[in-house]
Write a structure and sequence with these properties.
alpha+beta, seven-stranded mixed beta sheet, three-stranded antiparallel beta sheet, 10 strands, disordered C terminus
Length: 311
């Protein structure tokens, strides 16, 4: 059974952590009948993430409302996590814990004699229920929408060193670092230019920013990237980029703190129109087909109404 979860405004953060080059590694291991080592990733990384959250000093004044991430699902060698955001400043704790987990996990693997795949991570946010929706499939949450698609596309540019952030996640993260007066040099942000993310922003170039997990001054000098992006400049850039795009919405948390708590103009109207215009798949998907017994069974199994804006 599939159900639409809620029409209420919500902002969620998503994490993807994936093994690098795991396909060829597993093939080699399979030849020797040894697959135990790479399987440890699925047990060790979630534990490492839990430990990193516990060590986050930023959490000291946020414990009452802070929600730790939960596992969304596992796709091949990729683990997906998510959490609700009730305070924009929580995003710093989330990202810092995630960064530390990737760094610590990779350091652990580098100590092994035999080469083992390292992992890489990506972070993004998604607002609901406009542009994205949450559904329950047999009591298991699932998320679909344009922000989810963008997050998955961003994973292409992540590496063991590069923790890619969506433009909305980056905006909230840098704002928090500035507001909380956290040492910026601990979180160097790099800009890699604009790249096309297939299907995202109607294929318009998307800015690729990443948090440097493994800062190396010598390598930075060679690459000509010794200077970090200035956080105030990043915030201004992100705000302008989102405002100038017809496909993006400034992130907001209803009932949140003094920042990111305002619903952008016309967004409430767009949501109401989308809700009013929801279609029933039972009345549309098979409208032009003969209702034979098999179709009737499939139709009866569908219990979801999808936001579909009127023209």
């Amino acid at each position: 059974m599939t159900n639409l979860v809620s029409d209420e405004w919500r902002l969620k953060i998503f994490f993807s952590v994936d093994l690098i080059g795991s396909t060829s590694y597993k093939a080699k291991k399979a030849e020797n009948g040894d697959d135990a080592e790479w399987c440890l990733f699925f047990a060790v990384f979630p534990l490492e993430l839990t430990t990193s959250y516990q060590k986050q000093a930023i959490l000291k004044h946020q414990k009452d409302s802070f929600e730790q991430v939960k596992i969304w699902k596992i796709l091949g060698d990729e683990i997906l996590f998510y959490a609700d955001l009730t305070n924009y400043q929580h995003i710093a704790s989330h990202i810092c814990a995630f960064k530390d987990s990737i760094q610590n996990y990779n350091l652990l693997l580098k100590g092994k004699k035999a080469p083992v795949p390292l992992c890489k991570g990506t972070v993004w946010t998604a607002g609901f229920p406009l542009s994205n929706i949450e559904i329950q499939i047999n009591n298991t949450p699932d998320f679909i929408g344009s922000s989810i698609d963008a997050g998955f596309r961003l994973t292409k540019y992540s590496s063991s060193r590069k923790l890619c952030l969506s433009i909305e996640a980056l905006l909230m993260f840098c704002t928090t670092i500035i507001d909380e007066r956290i040492e910026k040099t601990e979180y160097p942000i790099r800009f890699e230019g604009k790249k096309e993310l297939k299907g995202v922003l109607n294929n318009a170039p998307y800015p690729i920013f990443w948090l440097d997990i493994k800062k190396d001054d010598v390598v930075d000098k060679w690459l000509g990237k010794g200077e970090n992006c200035e956080f105030n400049d990043i915030v201004k850039y992100c705000e302008d980029f989102i405002n100038d795009s017809e496909y993006l919405i400034q992130p907001f948390i209803v009932g949140g703190m003094d920042k990111f708590n305002q619903i952008p103009d016309d967004i409430q109207n767009r949501k109401e129109k989308a809700v009013e215009a929801r279609i029933d798949p039972k009345q549309s998907i098979f409208a032009d087909q003969e209702n034979d017994n098999e179709n009737e069974k499939l139709i009866d199994s569908i219990d979801i109404k999808i936001p579909y804006p009127k023209n």
